[in-house]
Amino acid sequence: MSEAPPNIVLHAADVIKNFGGLRALSDIDLQIEEGKTHAIIGPNGAGKSTLLNVIIGRLPPTSGAVVFDGTVLTGKAPHEINQLGISRVFQTPEIFADLSVLHNVMAPAFARRDGAFRINMFSAVSRQTEIREEAESLLRDFGMWERRDDHSGALSRGDKRRLELCMCLIQHPRLLLLDEPTAGMSRHDTNTTIELLKRIKLRGMTKVIIEHDMHVVFSLADKISVLAQGRIIASGLPQQIKDDPRVQQAYLGGAAE
Ligand SMILES: Nc1ncnc2c1ncn2[C@@H]1O[C@H](COP(=O)(O)OP(=O)(O)OP(=O)(O)O)[C@@H](O)[C@H]1O
User: Fold this and answer.
1) Going by CA atoms, what residue is nearest to atom 14 of ligand 1?
2) Mutation probe of ligand 1 site: the residue of 48, 54, 59 with most atoms within 8 A of C-beta
3) What pLDDT does 257 receive?
4) Where are its TM segments located (predicted)?
């Protein structure tokens, strides 16, 4: 019996991005399978953040298109793309510094995906209880429970990143984009985050992860694409990428870990 073809949830097709005379992305063809963790790696300046910004609508591609679950994202505003089920954890955490940790996690859940706002007080109250319980459970999972009433602006960089991850997860995205999710974390917090991201995977969430830390990449990725000078030079299973001489040449400086 032949295997069913994988469900491609996101497809960046023939994407080119120029900044003036600089070509940051060239002929990108990237397919992300549903339920998988796809890492994008590459040296500094390779175009990883630009690619993520094109996917989430922060940058328009010069040409080409990004399609998410049959919907063309190109031309849509970032909030519309978010409402379709794509969330992103940024390199610099974007949190509400004046709110408590718990309220930060609860806030994104009130922004309904269809943009509607319910005035029915009874459903609003029960919804609020539901959201609070889920936010509390996420904070427990992420080891942030003790800090739930703290002022978010006072958190360490690593804690802000974990907080932002909780803020994404409460939106139940279909696709989670992680831009260096463990940057600024201690090795212990990095390992805790790896374990949590593995658990999210068990819930079937698709993830695209940009990461410099090879320990994180090889702990999490089902598939890896390597960007160098704006082009995808290799795409495959982690072991294939490790063994690929082009990757060792371009990214790992001639010696894979
Ligand atoms: N807004 C911009 N305007 C002009 N050039 C840009 C802009 N954003 C990125 N670039 C350039 O595009 C290229 C790709 O940058 P990008 O930040 O996407 O790389 P990266 O792989 O994410 O790098 P890093 O790992 O250092 O974050 C670089 O040459 C960068 O200088």
Assistant:
1) 47
2) 48
3) 42
4) none
Centroid of ligand 1 to alpha carbon of 14 (angstroms): 19
Least confident range of 39-43, 118-122, 172-176: 118-122
Domains of the chain, residue spans: 1-85+173-257, 98-170
What are 98-116's pLDDT values in tens digits? 999 999 999 888 765 444 4
Q: Rounded to an integer, what distance in angstroms lies between the CA atom of residue 147 and that of residue 66?
A: 39
ipTM over 0.90: yes
Centre of ligand 1 to C-alpha 131, Å, is: 37
Residue nearest to atom 25 of ligand 1 (CA): 44
End-to-end distance of the chain based on CA atoms, in angstroms? 38
Query: Mean pLDDT throughout 127-142?
Result: 91
Q: Is 48 in the pocket of ligand 1 (CB under 6 A)?
A: yes
Higher pLDDT, 184 or 19: 19
Ligand 1 closest atom vs CA 53: 18
CATH number for the domain whose boundaries are 1-85+173-257: 3.40.50.300
Angle at 217 (CA atoms; ends 223, 201), nearest 5 degrees? 65
Segment 2-37, tens digit of pLDDT: 677 789 999 999 999 999 999 999 999 999 999 999
Q: Evaluate: CB of 53 within 6 angstroms of ligand 1.
A: no
Rounded to two decimals, the pTM is 0.85
Mean per-residue pLDDT for 159-170? Answer: 88
Residue among 15, 22, 226 to mutate when testing ligand 1 (max atoms within 8 A of CB)? 22
Do the beta carbons of residue 41 and residue 245 sit within 8 Å? no
Read off the tokens for 180: 């260096």
In whole angstroms, what is the distance from residue 222 CA to residue 165 CA?
20
Q: What is the dihedral of CA 200, 57, 10, 163, to 10 degrees?
A: 0
